[in-house]
Amino acid sequence: MAPIDNQCAICSKPGKLCASCENVHYCDSVCQKTDWKVHKLLCHTFEDSREPPGPNMMRVIVFPFNTTKLEFRWLPIKPGKTQCPDFGSFFGVGSMLGANKPALVDFRSFVQDPKTGVRLHHRITVMFRDGYKNDGSITSIAVHNLTGGPCISKLARPVLAYGNIDSLENEDVKCTNLDTSDLNVIKDWFAQGFYKCKNEQLYADRLNANDNFLDATAMFEMSQDVERELLTRGLTMPTNLQNLGLKERLQAVDAFKKVWDAKIKARASKKQQSFSASMDADELAWRKEMQTSGRITSQSSDYTDHLKRQTRLPEEYRPREK
Ligand SMILES: [Zn+2]
Ligand SMILES: [Zn+2]
Q1: For the chain, first and last CA: distance in Å?
Q2: What would the pLDDT profile of 195-208 be if each residue is shown by its tens digit?
Q3: DSSP 8-state code for residue 14
Q4: Which of 92, 86, 63, 65 is nearest to 74 (CA)?
Q5: In angstroms, what is the C-alpha Rg of the chain?
Q6: By three-state DSSP, how is residue 65 classified?
Q7: Cα torsion angle, 60, 2, 206, 216, sign
Q8: Confidence check: pLDDT of 84 > 60
Q9: From ligand 1's centre to the CA of 120, what distance in Å?
Q10: How far is the CA of 153 from the centre of ligand 2 (A)?
């Protein structure tokens, strides 16, 4: 969201615009310095991403897996009751369905500041490769760098974040363009992990709120998405779910997911082995090195060479020629 007033991003006192991006306010150089560690990741790229390159596009934040540099990107808006970016081949291929199948994508969304619990101006949704827990995906270096340490969620491969404006019931849920001011809450959310800020809980909260609730259709679609995910793994929801009300339905899906997570955990080592067999040797070696040394850097030229061989990645995720 573009700045509505001139509030300092750190302390909320009146402030002046950041001279390079003109997208965020600071009251003084102390607050600016405090925020720079996070703000610098997006400040300079905002300049190129100020205006959409065409109609019907939304600005999202991209967290590449192979570099610490974040970027804004304009993606086409996928029309529908709840607008979202048309991510196309963004997440690449290769998943539990097979090496050449499109990656399954999962998402979590939040409307509250993970630290303070204060409601945000808009909902933020984070999309990521669904199989990150057990498909051997490489940890996202951008996310790791942003949080400054191992991320509880261990998001892997490219990750993207987009925004939606909450609507009254039966209204379409519109998208909104993210900007540099969104990064701090996204960082806090990454650092806390899924299990303290689950979307099921937030949706349930919203369901119970008397005012300002999200479109019920969107929640219903979310529960259907979860069901579809489960189905792709040969797991069928109990048939009586079809007759449940929305709230009970969300609770049932959540409970079923927990059972499923426990099963997956038990089978994880076996699955990892079979997936690893189909991964290319270079990726395996790189991943092993990351795990054993705890060193996460994208600077080594070996790693650049390695990425050039990453034919499974979409073109834009291969390293750029300088
Ligand atoms: Zn300040
Ligand atoms: Zn700036």
Answers
A1: 32
A2: 333 444 444 444 44
A3: B
A4: 86
A5: 20
A6: coil
A7: negative
A8: yes
A9: 19
A10: 28
Cα(67) to centroid(ligand 1), Å: 30
Predicted pLDDT of residue 171: 73
pLDDT at residue 36, rounded to an integer: 93
Distance 121 CA to ligand 2 centre (A): 20
CA nearest neighbour of 93 among 311, 275, 284: 311
Ligand index nearest the alpha carbon of residue 179? 2
What's the CA-to-centroid distance between 30 and ligand 1, angstroms? Answer: 7
Ligand with the closest atom to the CA of 18: 2
For the cut 70, the answer to whether the pLDDT of residue 62 exceeds it is: yes
CA angle 36, 41, 43 (to 5 degrees): 75
Which protein residues have their CB within 5 A of the ion that is ligand 2? 18, 20-21, 43
Q: Is the pLDDT of residue 117 over 70?
A: no
CA of 205 to the centre of ligand 2 (A): 34
Which has the minimum average pLDDT: 223-237, 259-273, 292-306?
A: 292-306
Question: pLDDT for 167-187, tens place per residue?
Answer: 666 677 889 999 999 999 898
Q: How far apart are CA 68 and CA 142, in angstroms?
A: 4
Handedness of CA 291, 265, 144, 43 (dihedral sign): positive
Residue 35 has a pLDDT of 92
The closest ligand to the CA of 33 turns out to be: 1
Q: How far is the CA of 181 from the centre of ligand 2 (A)?
A: 9
- Closest of 41, 42, 32 to residue 11, by C-alpha: 32
Cα–Cα distance, 66 to 158 (Å, whole number): 8
How remote is the CA of residue 47 from the centroid of ligand 2, in Å? 9
